[in-house]
Inverse folding.
């Protein structure tokens, strides 16, 4: 009996350490991508942890939000010191996002009290990931149009539109409170559409400042409802922080075009796979019957179509299908100006 007990203890410790190591490695990889691209980690981290099997969807969402509250605070402090955020704009966003972030986790139980919470959350996260992929692509297109029209010139402080801004915050808060996805991708695209003259630096700074109370409120609400798994949160934080730092350091030497294209493919595949795993009726699947080949086909089609569609969109605004300006130059006007200066020197 003593031998059986020792074997059981060893297996439990081994399994626990395995989960923690997997979580830390996944967090580090996602952190590197976030550091390189500046994209929010929730859309990448949440599905990664679900597919790794570190916990059910509710525990993963709660842990991801808790870790995000830590590393987003660091980024917000940096931008705060540099004076890049628009605090009035961030304030209106927070007024809408925080109440709905607190409400979001409870809404699932009220709307579908008899539904399986894990499958329902996977379904919500799946749709949120597809939405995030779409909004990310739309964000690049809007910035492409701005770049082609020269609208980045004469960038100034925008005139605040309180009601639309509060509504954007409310939508983002609800999405983040339920799925942990959207604090960056969804809110940033809405800000670009509402405030086209907002500079790239102010856009990122404002988004980070408003994201801190948003994810903190969502984390507290999810903790109150689902509890907190420190065995997920601690390795998640340990892995993501150095990953973000490393990604930020190597970002200038990495060709981001391919990484950003890969992010759209991964978000699309992850969203489709979670819909499949949740047993979404049109796919007719579930935990015991999924369609991995169909998911792979969706990823392959997305991989092939993204550069073709991007090239056609470039042509609609008078740019060549491929070449300059690159995605990095479109998202960062200063990089484009630097490239133009280098070309003039040559």
């Amino acid at each position: 009996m003593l031998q059986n007990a020792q074997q059981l203890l060893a297996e439990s410790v081994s399994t626990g350490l395995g989960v923690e190591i997997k979580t830390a490695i996944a967090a580090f990889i996602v952190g590197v991508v976030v550091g390189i691209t500046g994209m929010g980690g929730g859309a990448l981290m949440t599905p990664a942890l679900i597919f790794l099997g570190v916990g059910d969807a509710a525990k993963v969402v709660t842990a991801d939000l808790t870790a995000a509250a830590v590393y987003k605070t660091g980024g917000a402090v940096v931008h705060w010191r540099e004076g890049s955020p628009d605090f009035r704009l961030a304030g209106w966003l927070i007024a809408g996002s925080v109440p709905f972030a607190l409400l979001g986790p409870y809404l699932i139980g009220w709307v579908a009290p008899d539904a399986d919470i894990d499958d329902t959350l996977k379904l919500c996260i799946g749709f949120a990931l597809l939405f995030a992929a779409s909004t990310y692509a739309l964000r690049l297109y809007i910035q492409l149009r701005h770049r082609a029209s020269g609208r980045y010139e004469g960038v100034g402080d925008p005139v605040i539109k309180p009601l639309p801004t509060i509504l954007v915050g409310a939508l983002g808060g609800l999405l983040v409170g339920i799925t942990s996805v959207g604090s960056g991708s969804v809110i940033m695209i809405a800000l670009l559409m509402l405030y086209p003259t907002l500079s790239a630096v102010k856009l990122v700074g404002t988004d980070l400042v408003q994201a801190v109370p948003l994810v903190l409120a969502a984390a507290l609400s999810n903790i109150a409802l689902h509890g907190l798994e420190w065995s997920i949160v601690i390795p998640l934080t340990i892995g993501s922080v150095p990953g973000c730092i490393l990604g930020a350091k190597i970002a200038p030497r990495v060709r981001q075009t391919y990484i950003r294209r890969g992010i759209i493919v991964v978000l699309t595949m992850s969203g489709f796979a979670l819909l499949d795993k949740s047993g979404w009726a049109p796919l007719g699947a579930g935990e015991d019957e999924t369609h991995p080949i169909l998911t792979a086909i969706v990823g392959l089609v997305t991989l092939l179509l993204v550069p073709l569609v991007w090239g056609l969109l470039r042509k609609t605004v008078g740019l060549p299908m491929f070449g300059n300006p690159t995605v990095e130059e479109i998202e960062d006007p200063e990089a484009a100006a630097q490239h133009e200066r280098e070309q003039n020197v040559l």
In short: Confidence is low (pLDDT under 50) at residues 1-16, 341-346.
